[in-house]
Design a protein that fits this description.
By secondary structure, the chain is α/β, with parallel strands linked by helices. It has one domain: Rossmann fold (3-Layer(aba) Sandwich). Helices cover 31% and strands 20% of the residues. A six-stranded mixed sheet has the order 2-1-3-4-5-6, with helices on both faces. α4 packs across α5. The protein starts with a helix and ends with a helix.
Length: 182
């Protein structure tokens, strides 16, 4: 994964992409999760440059400012070592090599106490990495992502998975946990 992170660091330096523009279509789902679960702390895992917060204020209706993490952006490259009420990740999972997904889910699901929201593209990207590879290296249907969560999440967390692209779908996992929070 380090090679991919280096590719993305170079890509971020050379391009103005990954500014956070994948969040707006998912913002209402995330807002509902934050409100419904009475969450006070959220991590945006793979926030890109973070413009969705610093320039566009997409979080203003959420009542909180998420912490930001993106290993390819110097100002957001430190992975927090604490738990959050919720962890959101939009247009990130498809950028992670398939063999690294279990490790990523280990972190996300062990550090989320109330909910996880995953917005995942299911089509190849228009963008190419500096090495010529497509930026979306793990393009899978929602059923694959659901099975990966069920297989690799170290604990059960109320989880929403929204896919878009070739496979447009929405799955909710561990809904019983949501009802326990009420």
């Amino acid at each position: 994964m380090t090679d991919y992170i280096e590719q993305y660091k170079q890509y971020h330096r050379e391009n103005n992409n990954y500014s956070g523009n994948s969040l707006p279509p998912q913002a209402i789902h995330i807002q509902d999760l934050i409100i419904d679960t009475k969450s006070q702390t959220v991590l945006d895992y793979g926030c890109g440059k973070g413009h969705q917060y610093t320039k566009w204020n997409m979080h203003k209706d959420w009542g909180l400012m998420p912490e930001l993490y993106d290993p390819a952006v110097p100002e957001h490259e430190v992975l927090p070592d604490k738990n959050f009420d919720g962890i959101i990740s939009t247009d990130v999972m498809e950028h992670i090599p398939e063999e690294q997904i279990p490790e990523v889910f280990e972190y996300i699901f062990s550090h989320a106490d109330k909910f996880v929201f995953l917005g995942i593209s299911t089509k190849l990207a228009k963008a190419l990495l500096p090495n010529g590879e497509n930026a979306h290296c793990t393009v899978k249907p929602i059923e694959w992502w659901t099975s990966m969560v069920e297989k690799h999440a170290p604990k059960r967390v109320y989880t929403h998975i929204k896919t878009y692209g070739e496979c447009n779908n929405y799955h909710i996992l561990n809904e019983d946990l949501y009802f326990e929070m009420l």
